[in-house]
Here is the input.
Amino acid sequence: MMKFLQRLGKSLMLPVAVLPVAAILMGIGYWIDPSGWGGGNQFAAFLIKAGSAILDHIPILFAVGIALGMSKKQDGAAAISGLVAFLVITTLLSKDTVAMLTKVDVEQVNAAFGKIDNAFVGIISGIIASICYDRFSGTQLPTFLAFFSGRRCVPIVTSIVMLGVSLIFFVIWPPVYGALVAFGIGMSKLGPLGAGLFGFFNRLLIPTGLHHALNSVFWFSVANIDDIGKFWGNIEGGVKGVTGMYQAGFFPIMMFGLPGAALAMYHTAKDNRKKVAASLLIAAAFTSFFTGVTEPIEFSFMFLAPLLYVIHAALTGISMAISAAFHWTAGFGFSAGFIDFFLSLRIPLANYPLMLLVQGAIFFVLYYLIFRFVIVKFNLKTPGREDDDIDVEAESKVALSGSNFAEMAKIILDGLGGKENIVSVDFCVTRLRLDVKDTTLINDKKIKSTGCTGVIKPSKTSAQVIVGTKVQFVYDELKKLL
Here is the structure.
């Protein structure tokens, strides 16, 4: 199970890597035009729309990225299948489609179907697509259907499988969503404790997309709390020191806590991987602080180290309870980053908002110390701590004997025992990773003649060729030969 989660976490790195710049673009646009969200400034609208093109479609990115990353051959057909899977389930379970199938008005359709386009469904779609690819990409159909054989049949099979998955979600999604709404309404009567529980479950449910159910209770008008609307609109019923209690505690976490976690992950990364880890973690930490978009950090360890994510959820709950108990309030329209914090300072219902910065400094230290201790104590595989048996920094200095990658690929393929010995091939930062039929057929000397510095054989059917930072170009040529 842990190996599966780690594979899932690594597959998410591709879509997660694009999120920071999108969040920053959208955040800057919102800062330029905080009230009109682009309606009052064309440049702000340009930035907001550019950023939202990515952030609003995170589930699709996850579906495609996971399907590609988790399939054995990481083929484009797997990525397309992930997209197909996501489109099938989200279209079949959209409010309009459900209304048509059940013969009711759209307004009467369960609110759960309005939230079917979420990260959890994207992840499920990607996983199913990758399984379908691994299982059916080699399928040979009868002659009259030969065109649809092999990889072409994978999206077709995936769409059929998703019909069944959609039926399952049609049954289970509404009651689960409804139960969480009822649970949230019950929590809302518990004061600061309820705020703490909301923060805990809000983070814990992020991977499933069901956090929207709780958000609707506390932030909007489902239970007449409408914390966001009352805070920013100064709607009748807003109370200074109370309104905003379901938002304020997120600021110390997103502006300070998660950057502290990122620093801990960087400091605990292997020395030869620190540069690689830093490129992700620095961008993710800045995005969290500046805009309040936390997915780049959270998804970097959510599946790689689930224990850390539970700790993160608990610390978020504690932060929410503390700010609510002391009546320190601030609010957000986009997310709990610096931009919204700065803008909320001028809102009349903001109450001692600067104390949230003091609380944030404390949580920065807490996150750093706790994350660092737990990572080292349990040897968690956070970014930069992946298992490896070769010095990556040494690998990165490998100098190939030339730039004729096509010729190198031919020699490497011959050294690997030819096409007949190759089952699948992939690549990482500096090496080719292969599944082969028999490692005894590999000629290490011939492969090293290209400038590659080593050949590793973890088992009788797997091998790794250390190429260096130009590995992608060799891989591309090798794929052509295969």
Notes: Residues 45 and 481 are 47 Å apart (CA to CA). The mean pLDDT is 89. The longest strand covers residues 422-427.
